[in-house]
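@channel sequence for tomorrow's demo:
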Amino acid sequence: MPAAAIAQDQPDPCLLIDCTPDDGSEPSVEIDDPAATRENITVLGAPLDDPLGNKAYAVSEIGPRELANEASGRIENALRNVPGLQQFRRSDSRSANPTSQGVTLRGLGGNAASRALLTLDGVPQADPFGGWVSFPGYDALAIENVRVRRGGGTGSDGAGALAGTIDLSSFGVAGQSRYSGNVRYGSRDSLEANIAAEQKLGSGGLTFSAQYARGDGFIPVIEEQRGSVDRPAEYQQYGFGARFVAPLSDDTEIQANIRAYSDERERGFAFSDNRNDGADASVRLVSRGRWQWEALAYLQLREFQTSFGAVTADRNSVRQVLDQFNVPSTGLGAKFEIRPPVGDNAELRIGGDWRRTIGETNERFFFQNAAPLRGRNAGGRTDTLGGYVEASWQVTPTFLLTGGGRLDYWSIANGFRREFELAPDIAGQIRSDDSFADRDGFEGTGRIGFAYDAASLLTLRGAAYLGWRLPTLNELYRPFRVGADATAANELLEPERLRGVELGLDWEIYTLRFSGTVFYNQLDNAIANVTLDSGPGLFPGVGFVSGAGVFRQRQNLDAVDALGVEIDAAIDIGAFSLSAGYAYVDSEVAGNAGAQTAIDGLRPAQVPQHFANASLDWQPRRNDVSAGVTLRYIGSQFEDDGNTRLLDDAFTLDARANYRLSEKLMLEGWVENLFDAEVQAGISGAGVVERARPQTFWLGLNVRL
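structure tokens (generated this afternoon):
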């Protein structure tokens, strides 16, 4: 499990005492703890308060209990409980290629680069080179909750928040000394261990957490298609994080974060290993005085390595075809926001931010007799600099208006791609040396919304918005291969632009909560891998493609149109808690020229129409035992842009049970995919099916001091 909760196991006081009054009125809580009455504990480390305008938008939250109850212990799997939140592949970070782990919302099309902005304590988390998310880097962190805001155009989030924003928030620092740890052992010799600690330092505190995970893994290819080359996909991952928080004055505090991680995986055959290392540092100042403000600066360092092998049709031999031996990248950024006092019924936010990404890929390819004959370097730099103004006004006690605008300047610079010979007799000879023209431009975006309390228990809300995303360095400059298929880069890609509207309602009565949203999004210039031809043949940017493969290029589609509905519901009945979610997305490609006419009207690759999940948890008052189940359904989706390779729908059931052995020790058990359903994660051009998340049992111990 993630060290996601140094405090997540603190019981609800109503689980320890009877909080229900005899007269049937709302319960009150009285805790017989003299120390609690003598000392008010102040928790430090939070950002500024949630914006007043959030009430107008579709927001989902995953709290510490939901994170702790995720059977896999993986935050990317906990995110699958958010209706409509899509990851490029159905596999998680134990078996997926790290470059395939982008996230998006609202059916805007499969893409390894994220179309939703994921942040950690305000810091953007997309890989600076490729835009994917390194999920194992969060398993060592004390994550308190996840908040998902759907829809683009939120000015404070900036470029990249095309489909919405996923905010990860670390636990606050309470200035106490406390410690926790857990260890669990599972199927296929899997082992996970976590420790977390908080140490009081003066009027502030320091938190530290660390994690280690390894496993022999499972064989990704389905059983009936395996050959002698197929073997379990081993993984090993570890990391740590530290956070220091302290007050600088009565209303201002400093928050400093550092983390580092290493992620090694194999894809289930020789020459399919990869490694992803990262280190981050950030400093945030938060002031909650009359003039509230927040300042943030951060640094991200990444280094990625991967290898690819070509497997014969009978899957009895494999040879190396690519060694991407070094992909260093750097992300730099800063942000500032101020909220001047404008009255009790209004809020004004003024801010700006800057982000730079620098990266390149270093590769060896065209192997013969196990030796690479050619090399490639490619990369560049991107910058975005923007400013925003957002205002919210509680016009009446029941009616809220909110809106804002943002202007960004972007630039793409220093782009290059160079290929050269590695064969001993001609080593160093240049085959091609391309330097691409610098480009820049401006993007204006904005968002308006309203919330109306139609009744004491019912809120109606609506919003319209514009958003955008800059192409990643990977999309611009790096060609790649998957099996026999080859995809060329495109240095002329334009930014993606989104227009969207939504209408929703939130209803809450006693312990029943319901939220529903209908939306329409149009993504112009959507970046996708477009099939241009089939092998065999020589093609620009990728070279030779065999008869078993196809030639694609990254291109801007005319548009992707997505119409859908999202539903969240939850109810608490005594010791039982039931939550459920559903999303339906009718997504369609609009392509009116060239090779894109062949995919006009088709569904975007990797976009299912149906998402559904439900969780039932049992937590009796004594708190000695608890249990729960989670059901997830994901509809069928196409692997490719031509809608010829269909991934079957999948239904899985996870379960857990906990038993408290003592005040400080708990026995925990989980099972992932109880009925071992086949979850198809990919289909190659040769029809080979890859699976994800097989049946996995876990048994563990949790200690708190």
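heads up for whoever presents: The chain has one domain: 13-29+54-704.
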